[in-house]
Design a protein that fits this description.
This protein is α+β, with helices and mostly antiparallel strands. The protein folds into two domains: about 30-190 and about 225-265, Cupin (Jelly Rolls, Sandwich), CATH 2.60.120.650; about 270-320, no CATH class. The protein has helices at about 60-70, 90, 100-105, 125-145, 200-205, 270-285, 295-320, and strands at about 5, 30-35, 45-50, 75-80, 90-95, 115-120, 150-160, 165-170, 175-180, 185, 225-230, 230-235, 240-245, 260-265. Helix 5 (about 200-205) packs across helix 6 and helix 6 (about 270-285) packs across helix 7 (about 295-320). It is globular, with a radius of gyration of 20 Å.
């Protein structure tokens, strides 16, 4: 498949607009699809944004945010030499592999292969407000096909090429935004069972296991590939397989750090799908071949309450401290 170049259009001015007293104000900081009439929350879609200009998303401010998040256990570091085929759980760590402090990590970001991720940035109130603005800007489009947005979170990924984020899936819908430098992201259709099987999605939803969610080189061509710079982005739905890479061909003196942000969220539909996966896991163990969610709305509506009851029963039986996200 030929790489898909993201459209570049004018960034909107930084002021709120309100055409009537009954309409929502348009947030100053926002995301928008290239073709709004064709946008659906159920499919991969190129988008644009102006978050790369936001004061809170510049490197000095992100360094301060990292110092806030580190004591909360919300910073992650990548093992040097990781590849897109690496198992994500094997190469992500809660501490810098070489023992550096947060200050030292950011002081040496220009070193090739540097990589840090900031998880759940909404723990800092200013970033929580920013995420609310971002989701608010897309709210009318999202509500059209996936109403009931909840649990909005933000993740920031900062690296110096050559660097990668390995192949994986997430539970949430995702607005993936390039903030600084350049990066290539590959995203696969979340319904392509050759790329990630229904059983492997079920194991991820229930047990947070990515053990069998692995890149198959022969299926790379099935992905959509986006070459992103500041202001570019991609929307993709829950459990869409994806991975990123950043090469050194764009690096110049003073311009060698790549940063991207994932603004992720659940909806009533992602919650219903998670509950269907929960039930399907047990149906599969009983020797059946259940249909994945999304193929029949009626069937999903019947399955979801049973999946919810199973999740609650599992929680009680195993004395779990929480139900897997999206199953509540």
């Amino acid at each position: 498949m030929e790489p898909l170049k993201l459209m570049v259009d004018d960034v909107p001015t930084h002021h709120a607009a309100q055409s009537s007293s009954t309409e929502r104000p348009i947030p100053s900081w926002r995301v928008w699809p290239n073709q709004p009439a064709q946008f659906t929350a159920r499919h991969i879609c190129p988008i644009r944004h102006n978050l790369h200009q936001h004061p809170l998303l510049q490197l000095p401010q992100l360094a301060q945010l990292a110092k806030t998040l580190m004591p909360l256990g919300q910073c992650r570091f990548m093992t040097p030499g990781a590849t897109q085929s690496s198992a994500l759980g094997d190469v992500l760590h809660n501490a810098s592999p070489d023992g550096r402090s947060i200050d030292e990590v950011f002081a040496n970001l220009d070193e090739p292969g540097s990589w840090i991720a900031l998880y759940n940035v909404e723990a800092e109130p200013r970033y929580a407000a920013l995420l609310a603005d971002i989701i608010g800007s897309a709210h009318p489009l999202l509500e059209r096909t996936q109403p009931g947005i909840f649990k909005v979170s933000g993740y920031v990924f900062i690296s110096t090429p050559p660097s990668v984020t390995p192949f994986h899936i997430d539970r949430e819908n995702n607005f993936w935004l390039q903030l600084l430098g350049r990066k290539t992201i590959n995203v696969w259709d979340h319904t392509d069972r050759d790329v990630v099987s229904a059983r492997d999605v079920e194991n991820f939803i229930l047990f947070n296991s990515l053990d069998d969610v692995k890149l198959k080189d022969e299926l790379r061509s099935r992905s959509q590939e986006f070459h992103a710079g500041p202001g570019d982005g991609v929307y993709f739905p829950s459990t869409s397989p994806h991975m990123t890479r950043s090469e050194r061909d764009w690096v110049r003196p003073g311009d060698g750090v790549s940063a991207s942000m994932g603004v992720v969220f659940y909806t009533r539909e992602t919650q219903r799908s998670a509950r269907v996966y929960q039930l399907n896991h047990y149906l599969r163990r009983a020797g059946l071949t259940p249909r994945p969610p999304g193929q029949s709305r009626l069937r999903d509506e019947l399955k979801a309450p049973l999946g919810y009851m199973l999740a609650q029963a599992r929680r009680r039986l195993h004395h779990l401290a929480y139900t897997p996200p999206g199953l509540e």
